[in-house]
């Protein structure tokens, strides 16, 4: 269990570091992103372990759940990027003909 938690935290940290490196302009402060990645992974490991129940034999499933939840948490931190072409309009709006 301790190795699963440590592995989950390291995977969350690696995912957050990659996000900071690749998407620095669209993310808030790096410390917040790194902390969110680690905490999201730890929560994902706990949630996956709780869903699978006691005595599950696959730590890989726990690590996969940790990475998925960490990625979801990091995606919530993304700010919208600038569009390259055309005027911006509200989401799900139809273009006007006029």
Automatic annotation (TrEMBL):
Keywords: Membrane, Transmembrane, Transmembrane helix. The chain crosses the membrane at residues 6-24, 31-52, 58-78. This is Integral membrane protein.
């Amino acid at each position: 269990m301790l190795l699963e938690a440590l592995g989950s935290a390291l995977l969350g940290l690696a995912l957050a570091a990659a996000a900071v490196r690749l998407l620095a302009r669209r993310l808030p402060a790096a410390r917040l992103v790194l902390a969110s990645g680690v905490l999201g992974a730890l929560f994902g490991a706990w949630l996956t372990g709780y869903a699978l129940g006691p005595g599950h034999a696959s730590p890989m499933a726990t690590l996969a759940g940790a990475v998925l939840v960490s990625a979801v948490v990091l995606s919530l931190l993304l700010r919208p990027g600038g569009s390259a072409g055309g005027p911006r309009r509200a989401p799900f709006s139809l273009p006007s003909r006029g």
